[in-house]
Amino acid sequence: MAGGFRPYQSLTAGDYTSKVRTFYVTSGHGSLLAVGDMVVETGTAANNPEGYSEVDAVSGTGLILGAIVSINFNTANLDNATGLAAGTAGYVKVLTDPYALYIANVAAGGILATDVGLNADITATAATTSGGITNSNMVIASSFATATAGMRIVSLIDGAVGASAAVICRINESSITSTTGV
Questions:
Q1: C-alpha to C-alpha distances, 139 to 17, 29, 90, 102, nearest whole angstrom
Q2: Is residue 153, in this structure, part of any structural domain at all?
Q3: Is 10 among the domain residues?
Q4: Residue 53 per-residue DSSP state
Q5: Model's pTM, two decimal places?
C-alpha cells in the first residue's frame, strides 16, 4: 500500500507551492522521516542557530502543521539520503497551508462512502527504506469521528471504497489556525 500525504491542491486562491516553509528536526527525533509524513511543531528555535521552529512526525493526535515535501541534503546522513534518519538532526520543507488538500490511503479496515465528511486520525507508522528510496507509511486511520481528529475526509478517489482506498483529505486541526502555541 502506498503511504504518505501527497499535496493535491488548495482550497484557497492560487497554488500551494508558495506555502512551503523550512523547519528544523532535532537529533532527538525517534523515527525515520520521509517526504509525505505529517509533522507537528515541537518547539521553538532554541536548538538551532538559524532560528527555525522545530518539527517531528505526527504521533496520532494533536494539532498538525503539514506534510514534509522535501528534506534538505544532509552530509551526516549519506547512508539514507532520501529520508532523515532517526537521531539525525536536519532541515525539512513543510507545506503549511491549512487549506491544502492531500491524497492519502486509508489503513486496513477501509472507508465507506458514508465516511466522506467525517474526520479521522493518522496512522503514524514510521517510514521505511527499500532500494535506496525512503517511503512514508503514514495513512488515514480507518476509524472515523464526527467532531475531533486530525484529518477531514473531503472525497473518495474514483469512488473507491474499502481497504487501501485513496481519499482526498485536509487538515482538520491545524497548528497554523489554532490560537494555542507550541
A1: 22, 20, 24, 11
A2: yes
A3: yes
A4: P
A5: 0.89
